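Data card: per-record layout.
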Amino acid sequence: MAFFDKIPENLFSVLVSKNKHVYLDSLFIIFQAYNEEMLIKKDELVERLKSYLENSSFSPEEEEDGERPDDASLSALAHFILRKLEKTGWIYRDYSENFIEEIIYLHDYSIKILNTLYELQIDEVKDYGSYVHSAYNNLKNQDLERSEDAIFALREAYKRTKDLINELKSLLNNLRKYHQALYEKEEIRQILKEHFDEFRELIDERIYHPLKTLDSIPRYKTPIINILNSWLYDKEMMDLLVKSSVRRRIYKDEEEAVEKVTGMINEIVNIYYNIDVLLKEIDRKRAAYTRASVERMQYLLNVDMSLKGKIVEILKALPENEEIVKTVSEAVLLFPQSYIDENSLYTKKSERKLQDVKFSKIKEAEEEGVFEKEMESLKERLKSALTRKKVFEFFKKLLREKREVLSEDINLDGDEEFLMLILGIIMHDERGSFYDVAFEEKGSVSVNGYRIPRMKIKKKV
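The structure for this 461-residue chain is written out next.
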């Protein structure tokens, strides 16, 4: 059956109307009541909607279909919203056994859609360990009991494993999104804001950190594979899975049951066999994003990307050709401008054309110490570059004879040390780093005129 054969055609019309925010919040209120109550009584739901409407900016006069509430009271607006949601197919109503109280019901498709919308809104911390732990416990218990409920354990393990791999793929795609958006940033503060306010909070702390610190995947991966492989080659267990699934009408016949059961087992095993490849790609993509952030910042520190800087570069690139300058001047108001200074009376000598003559090579006397001076100059230039080694040296100096330092303990001597602090914070989880950075709380402190976040830098154990 096609998708729009299962849902009303105008189901999503309320979510694209001018009052879409009010309708979506109202649907979430109904969804919350659905999760909290056994039955959603209309009178109680109207009271919930009235409380919400007290602080909302609902404008029913802007409705495209011309419908209007009976009056401007909160009760009339709440009833109008319920009628609108019923008309578009989100809810339906029925009466209780005494035919007095009205009960509000959500359609099955409404529940699924609202569950997805609610998950998108709340941004919960992902618990990858629960997927693996649940799959292992279900399979382990049925491996010991060998009851007819084994088919439910297998189906639940399959669902949890698919949820796990989908969440990991979602994480990988999010990392790619941040990496691609990085090159659209034209200012250093934009990169820092994205890295610390968005990437660190939404990706690192909520998703990546739990994934790397909890060892559920490597701990349970091998036992899950061993249990399922043993089931696959155990005729008694396979017969139990197939016959119980047909008896419970999960599948229509044994032929379909064998195909589905074998397929689920093989897919779970293959996912856990290959999951390390996906985990390594996530690590690589995250490290690449961190490295690209540092490189982008270094580039912007050395290139004037302002409008003024771009115009200067364009003017520098214009060749000294009157025809080209004339052409450019037709599109842009461009004209030459001269001024008088102390060199204005200087007249450049005209160049002489050298005739074709043979020159005798004369051995030039090397000036004493020229090579040594050039080498010293090169060393000084290399010292001033913000290299990875120099950043780590700066952090070694910060942590000298200390296990940890707070923001208040840091002493910044100039712009270079401030930049090394920023780069070091971004690079703290790279391979070879000997320190960790933990942000204590929101807020910042002033250190020698530089504003830095409240944090704790400590040596790795």
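Known properties of this structure: The first strand starts at residue 40 and ends at 41. The chain is about 60% helix and 10% strand.

See the next section for split statistics.
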